[in-house]
């Protein structure tokens, strides 16, 4: 019996779930690629196509959020 076959499950998703593959730089419905290589799920192909842009915008928002530089807000205050 091939025990390794037990661990080689294909990623499964629902129709209508869209992902952005970080390795192939492509949108996929499914998913097709492993979770470590994708962002999502998104509710539409368009939303998945803009995954990297959305991530950049959120990073800027978080970097400029005063709570990230306020130790008391993070719970780091002595």
Automatic annotation (TrEMBL):
<protein>
    <recommendedName>
        <fullName>SPOR domain-containing protein</fullName>
    </recommendedName>
</protein>
<feature type="region of interest" description="Disordered">
    <location>
        <begin position="31"/>
        <end position="78"/>
    </location>
</feature>
<feature type="compositionally biased region" description="Basic and acidic residues">
    <location>
        <begin position="46"/>
        <end position="78"/>
    </location>
</feature>
């Amino acid at each position: 019996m091939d025990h390794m076959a037990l661990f080689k499950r294909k990623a499964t998703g629902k129709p209508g779930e869209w992902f952005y593959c970080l390795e192939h730089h492509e949108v996929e419905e499914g998913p097709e690629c492993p979770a470590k290589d994708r962002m999502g799920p998104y509710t539409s192909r368009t939303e998945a196509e803009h995954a990297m842009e959305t991530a950049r915008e959120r990073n800027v928002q978080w970097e400029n959020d005063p709570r990230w530089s306020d130790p008391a807000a993070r719970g780091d205050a002595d």
